[in-house]
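Risk register update: the risk of archive-format incompatibility is retired. Evidence:
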Amino acid sequence: MDTVTRTRPVRERPAAVVLTEASQARIAKLMGEAPADAIGVKLSTPRRGCSGLAYSVDYVTAADPMDERIQTPGGTLFIDGGSVLYLIGSTMDWVEDDFQAGFVFANPNAKGTCGCGESFTV
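Archived output:
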């Protein structure tokens, strides 16, 4: 009996995190100033703060096959494989004003945040 191999079209997955133009521009600026061995920046959610999880953005020097990758015009954003479930559907923005500058996250998975805004819980 002959077997027929069928290939289904591969549907591209949506990115786990939506990046605003401002956050993409900031990633490009970071990569322009990055150490020579940096291959991108990595978003993770380490355990810390009053609520349990915090957002962390750091340079990355080696790719981890478990990480999600988002290509931007200025460089690659890696999302820690263990953090993806906490971040799906989030928007990452860069906000700068007279008093502070930093990445800001609109995370639909966050059930609460601490009073200082440094950490969140899911």
